[in-house]
Amino acid sequence: MAILIRGPAVVGRPGEEVLPKADVIVEGRRFEAVLPGGGAEGNFDFVVDGEGCLLIPGLVNAHTHLAMTLLRNVAPDVPLERWLADHIWPRERRLRPQDVYWGTLLGLAEAIRSGTTAVADMYFFMDEVAGAVEEAGVRALLSYGVVALTPDRIEPELAEAERFVRSWDGAAEGRIRAALSPHAPYTCPAAVWKRATALAHELKIPLHTHLAETWEEVERFRAETGRSPAEWLEELGALSVPLIAAHCVHVSEKDIEILAAHGASAVHCPTSNLRLGCGIAPVAELLAGGVNVALGTDGAASAGDLNLVEEVRLAALLAKARAGPAALPPAEALRLATAGGAAALGLGKEGGTIEPGRRADGVLVSTEGPHFCPGGDPVADLVYAGQGLDVRAVFVDGRPLLLGGEFQALDLEKILARCRRVAHRLRP
């Protein structure tokens, strides 16, 4: 399929000069050409009007639990451990496979509508999650969340995680990749981490986990083991494969050195961490220490929504609250959600930018709303004033998933109706 996106301003690489106007040609699954000033000629399957818009690389949600849309805003204003144990886990035990399928489709619709083209999702009933991803057309790194709080759960949990990887890695024409996800150092013993790491080496896949989310978690772990969670993982060898570490709110200077030395990625989840009172991740310090940082929403149960545009702005503002007004300028904040996320998901050589030869994952954002006027620095305007609903078109692998704000592959009304029925059944 040949597509012409005519006349938008283009952010090819966040941090580099914005092209004020260009024609962008998509051929098949890749960007074929970016023509400054426009003037493209030829035969195209269709032409997308990009006048008055900004074309940016696809946004990457590097840590989420999509099906938790079904638990959106359950038990607000409760600390994380009580929130999980008293409110989330009891409801999750009542979820059925098809519930997770519909909840994932709802999450994907919300994500696509606000410009997300790729996600890293960790949950259960992952065959249903993968089926929803395949149907929706996005790119995804998917993993079964291993929780082994008792010894009898180690074998079945690891077996399910491995089965999913072998079943789905490389599916959907390569849009679906798989990872292994021991849920966290405090929910999985050393035996799980050692075996997961060995399997990750064998299958050449990453690990995805939660790390240092709350102060209480880290202090209790240190009291029990004499090490921080990052130190413990390094000692086990779990950092010898690519690691996606969600949250990283309470990491020390030594932890940052460890993560950087092993090429791990930290995923900042601003809204969720604020909502649960976990704190603010030291993003400026992580970046200065050489850690790749990406952005994530976490699940809608804690974040409220899956709007990554909102997370970009909040990440920029929180970095300034911690480290001063020069911290995380707009182009760098946008880079975390694009190239930073692509690197975390292992797409660094394929995605994260709009350049010839790269995967055609892009987002067209309208800049014609009053909040973009009078217009100056388009990236600053996007980061500090942009809204998820400004997104007009979304492309993944050259396929349009959203055009003119309308879904091209999903039946939103059907998804909403099914999810409302599931949510009603889950209520206490």
CATH level 1 name of the largest domain: Alpha Beta
Give me the CATH superfamily of the largest domain: Metal-dependent hydrolases
Report the structural category: alpha/beta
The tally of helices reads: 15
Major sheet: arrangement of strands: 2-6-16-17-18-19
Low-confidence stretches: none
CATH topology of the largest domain: TIM Barrel
- Into how many domains do the coordinates divide? 2
- For the residues shown, what is the average pLDDT? 96
Characterize the largest beta sheet: strand count, sense, and whether it forms a barrel.
Answer: 6 strands, mixed
CATH hierarchy: architecture of the largest domain = Alpha-Beta Barrel
Content of β-strand = 15-25%
Shape annotation: globular
- What is the rounded Rg? 21 Å
| Helical content (DSSP H or I, runs of 4+) | 25-40%
How many strands appear in the DSSP assignment?
19
- First and last CA, distance: 49 Å
Question: Any overview of this molecule?
Answer:
- This protein is α/β, with parallel strands linked by helices and 428 residues long.
- The chain folds into two domains: 2-58 and 356-407, Urease, subunit C, domain 1; 65-344, Metal-dependent hydrolases (TIM Barrel, Alpha-Beta Barrel), CATH 3.20.20.140.
- The chain has helices spanning 80-92, 97-113, 126-136, 154-168, 190-203, 215-225, 229-236, 253-261, 270-275, 283-288, 300-303, 308-323, 330-344, 378-385, 412-426; strands at residues 2-6, 9-10, 22-27, 30-36, 46-49, 53-57, 59-64, 116-123, 139-146, 176-178, 181-182, 207-211, 243-247, 265-268, 292-295, 362-366, 391-396, 399-403, 406-407.
- The strands form four sheets. The chain has a six-stranded mixed β-sheet with strand order 2-6-16-17-18-19, with helices on one face. Strands 7, 8, 9, 10 and 11 form a five-stranded parallel β-sheet that branches. Strands 4-3-1-5 form a four-stranded mixed β-sheet, with no helix packed on it.
- Helix 4 (154-168) links the parallel strand 9 and strand 10.
- The model has no long low-confidence stretch (mean pLDDT 96).
